[in-house]
Design goal:
Blueprint (H helix, E strand, L loop, with lengths): L17 H23 L7 H20 L3 H7 L2 H17 L4 H33 L4 H28 L22
C-alpha cells in the first residue's frame, strides 16, 4: 500500500487507499481469528499479553474502518509484521535446536535491525505524530491511548529480546529461574 501510494505518508489522518483499507480489514480478521484460536484452545492464561495486544488492535482497526480516518497510521503500524518474520525464524531455530549457531547468530543481528526498522521506528514516529498533531478528544484520544499502551508493550518485548539474545546473564532471577517465565521470545 505504501509502496504504491507513498503520498499517503503526507496525510496520516485522512489519507486513503483501497489497498490500505483492505489490508486493515484483512488484518482485523486475522486478529479476531487468532484471538478466538487462543481462547478456544485454552491458551488464554499463557497468552494473555497477546490477547491484550489483539484487543487493542481490533478496537483500533475497527474504529479506523468505520470512520475512514487514520488508515495510514494503521498501515504504518502493520510494518511490525515484517519484523515478525525474523522473530518467528528465531523461535523456530530455538525450538529445532539447530546444530549450527552461525544461523542463529546471523538471525539474531538481522532480527535486531528489523526490530528497529519495522517496530521501534514506525512506533516512535506515530507516537510523536499523535502527541504533536492529533486532537486529544474522541477517536484521536482513543488511538493515542492505544498507541501509548502499545509503546509500553513493544519496549517490554524489546527488553526481553535484548536480555535473551545479547545479555543472557541478566535473565536469571535470584532463585535461578527465568525472570520472565517460559515465553518463546526469551527462551
Amino acid at each position: 500500500s505504501l509502496w504504491h501510494s507513498p503520498e499517503l505518508l503526507s496525510d496520516i489522518q485522512d489519507g486513503y487507499s483501497v489497498s490500505g483499507h483492505l489490508l486493515v480489514c484483512f488484518s482485523s480478521g486475522y486478529f479476531i481469528h487468532d484471538t478466538l484460536d487462543i481462547i478456544f484452545n485454552h491458551q488464554s492464561r499463557s497468552s494473555w499479553e497477546y490477547l491484550v495486544h489483539h484487543a487493542m488492535a481490533i478496537s483500533a482497526f475497527v474504529s479506523l474502518i468505520v470512520t475512514g480516518r487514520f488508515l495510514v497510521a494503521a498501515v504504518l503500524l502493520l510494518l511490525v509484521e515484517v519484523s515478525n518474520i525474523f522473530l518467528t525464524v528465531r523461535m523456530l531455530l530455538k525450538m529445532s535446536n539447530v546444530p549450527s549457531p552461525a544461523l542463529y547468530e546471523a538471525n539474531k543481528y538481522i532480527n535486531l535491525v528489523m526490530y528497529f526498522a519495522f517496530r521501534l521506528a514506525p512506533q516512535a514516529y506515530l507516537t510523536w505524530y499523535f502527541l504533536r498533531h492529533v486532537e486529544v478528544q474522541g477517536q484521536g484520544a482513543f488511538l493515542s491511548a492505544n498507541l501509548l499502551l502499545l509503546d509500553a508493550m513493544i519496549l517490554m518485548y524489546f527488553s526481553r529480546l535484548l536480555r535473551s539474545d545479547f545479555f543472557p546473564s541478566l535473565r536469571k532471577g535470584s532463585a535461578g529461574r527465568d525472570v520472565d517465565g517460559e515465553k518463546f521470545l526469551i527462551d
